[in-house]
Amino acid sequence: MEKIVDKIKICIQCGTCSSSCPLNFAMDIPMRKLIGLIKAGYIKKVLKSKTFWLCLSCYFCKIRCPKNIDLPEVMYNLHEICLKENILPENEITLQIYKAFMKVVNNFGRNFEPLMLFFSLYKFPKKLLKFLPLGIFFLKAKRIHLFPYKIKNSDSLKNLLKEADLIEI
Amino acid sequence: MKYTYYPGCSLKSTEIGYENSLRASSEILGIELKELPEWNCCGATIFPKLNYKSYLLLSTRNLALAESYGEDLVTACNGCLTALNKVNFYLQNNRDILEKINGVLGKSGLNYQGKIKIRHFLEVLVKDIGKKIIGEKIKKGIHGIKVASYYGCQYSRPFGPEHPENPQYLENLLEILGAEIVDFSHKTNCCGGILTISEESCLKLIKDILEEAENSKVDCIVTICPLCEINLQLYQKRIKIFIPVVYFTQLLGYSLGIEISKLGKEIFSLKKLLK
Q1: B107: nearest CB among A99, A102, A160
Q2: Which of A99, B20, B47, B57 qualifies as a FRET site for B273, CA 20 to 30 Å off?
Q3: What is the mean pLDDT of each run of 10 residues along chain B (275 residues)?
Q4: Which phi and psi (to 5°) does residue B245 adopt?
Q5: Which residues in chain A are closer than 8 Å to B56, comparing Cβ atoms?
C-alpha cells in the first residue's frame, strides 16, 4: 500500500481521470474520489470498492493526467492487495475469469480459450451455456483446436513462475 | 525487411484469419516474418492485476528469446503490444529488477539485456514499407468502400508510435488502398476487452462504437486488434446493429490480389462489395 500512496501523493484531485474513464458511470466510487480516499487513509473503503475491478486498461486516464500518474498501475496494484487480504470483488465472475486465464497460461504457456471459458464460468452454468453456440461455431470453422497447444518448455516455465514469486520487487 | 514475429494467443486460434491475411500480405510486400519459437503468453492485462511478478517473468521470457534474433519484435495484437512494451520500458528503467528477473530466467539459459523494440504490424507497414512500395503492389484496390477505422485503445496508448488519441496510420494505409474514410470519433475508444464476459456495462462501450459506425453509414469497421474484432462482432445481435468488422490486413491482402478464401472468414461479409 505504501507504494501506491507514494505514486498518488502528487494528485491534485482535478477529476480528469473520472471524466476520462469509459466505465465511470458503472463505478461506485469515481476514480478521483478513490484516489482522495487513499490519500486520506480510508483504505478499507477503497479495497471494498468495485471501481478498480472495472479498470479496462484503456489508458485514457494515464495519458490525460496532468501529473502523469500511472493510474492503471495503481488500479492493478489494488487488485493484488485485495487478493492478499482476501477481499473479494462484488462481481465474482471477473475474478474467476482472471484466475482461469492464469491457470491455463501457467499450465500450457499460452491461452486456450475453450478451457479458459470453462474454468471461468463452470460455477455459472447459465452464462456458460450462452457461449456454447459460439464454441460450436468456432469448432466447426476450425478456428479453435480440440486440444490446447502446450509450449515445449511449459514445465520449465512453471518452475520459473514459481521462482519469480519469491523475488522482491 | 526482416522481423521477429510474435503472434499472440488469439491469432493462433479463433482469429486465424487475421494471421493468414497478415502472412499472405507480408509475403507479397517482401516482409520476412520469423515466428518467435516457443513464445508464451504476454500476460495480457490480467497477470499484472493479479500477479505482477509472473507478468514480468512471462513477458521478459519472450523478450529474452527475441533478443537473440536481433530484429524488432512485431505483433498485430494491441494487447500483446502494450503488455510487452510495458515490461520492456519498466525493466529498462529499473535495472535492479531486470537483474532479479534475469536471475530466475538464467535457470533456463535465458538473459535479457533490454535491447528489443516492440512494434505493431500497422506501424511497420506504414513507416518501414511505405506508401510507394505498397502502392506499386496494389492490384485491385477497394475503391468506393466506405470504412470506419477503429484502432481500439492499446495501440496508441500508453506507448504508441503515434498520437495517443488521434492516430493516423490506419487511415494512411486505407487511403493507399483506395477506401473512402469517414471521421470516426470513437477510433481509440475501448471495446471492453475481456471484461465484456462479466460486466454488462461494457455493452454500452460496444454500442457507442457500433452506433457511430451505423450513423456514418459505413460498409465496414476496420480493426487492428483481435479482441476488438471479437467484441464488436459478438454482441451485434444483442445490440441490434449489424455492420461487418474486418481486419486491416484482409483489406490489404485483397487489394494486393490475394484470393478472398485465403484471407479469413471476416472479409466474406464484404463479398458483395468486392468485385
Answers
A1: A160
A2: B20
A3: 97 95 98 97 98 98 97 98 98 98 97 97 98 96 95 97 98 97 98 96 98 98 97 96 97 96 92 84
A4: -120, 120
A5: 164, 169
Residues B225, B78: contact at Cβ < 8 Å?
Answer: yes
Residues pairing with B245 in the sheet: B221
Whole-number Cα distances in Å, B138 to B7, B134, B160, B275? 25, 6, 27, 14
Alpha carbon distance B249, B152 (integer Å): 16
CB contact under 8 A, A23 and B205: yes
State whether B195 and A94 contact (CB < 8 Å): yes
ipTM of the complex: 0.96
Under 8 Å CB-to-CB from A137, ≥6 apart: which residues? none
Helix axes of B130-137 and B16-29: crossing angle, nearest 10 degrees? 100
CB contact under 8 A, A169 and B56: yes
What secondary structure letter does DSSP report for B125?
I
Percentage of residues in chain A with pLDDT exceeding 90? 87
Convert the pLDDT of each residue in A97-112 to its tens digit. Answer: 999 999 999 999 999 9
CB A163 within 8 A of CB B53: no
Give B29-33's long-range contacts (Cβ < 8 A, gap of 24+): B29/B125, B29/B129, B29/B133, B29/B134, B29/B137, B29/B256, B30/B1, B30/B129, B30/B133, B31/B1, B31/B3, B31/B124, B31/B129, B32/B1, B32/B2, B32/B3, B33/B3, B33/B4, B33/B5, B33/B74
Q: Count of H helices and E strands in chain B?
A: 12, 8
Q: What angle, rounded to 10 degrees, do the helices at A154-164 and B95-105 form? A: 140
Yes or no, beta carbons of A57 and B38 under 8 Å apart: no
